[in-house]
Amino acid sequence: MNARFDMMNNDLGKSLGKRFAGLSMLLRNSSLPTSTQELVSLRASQINGCGFCTDMHTKDATAAGETAERLHLVAVWREATVFTPAERAALALTEEGTRIADAGDVSDATWAQAREHYDDDQLAALVMLIGLINAANRMNVIVRTPAGMYQPGQFANVS
Asked: Residue ranges of the domains in the chain?
């Protein structure tokens, strides 16, 4: 697939992209576990069909020590036994938050499950992460950013 437009080869796109990456770094430094952040980002990216983000979060998760087994099972997390109850709550919130257009809401049961496992700072990070990854997915799908070229940590030092 060929990109329609290279956002990082445009002055405004690059400037906005740096700020977007800065938000990601703030989330990375939150108390929400990195493994949970990568699983959430990967699952939303799978749902949204964002090849670039799926590639990025698979590679970043692997570089951070995530196992291949867990990464392979993210798409079927409900049937898998390799995720903690907290991760399962985060993945449920991710799916419902990503599919708001389909269901119209995040269920009270899913919210209560997330509330049971995460403190206020972690919930704030989780909600922001779900919103941010969905925005990133949409931007990359719109411009058809191709998958496969990402290197782990590629955006870690964006300033």
From this structure: 33-143
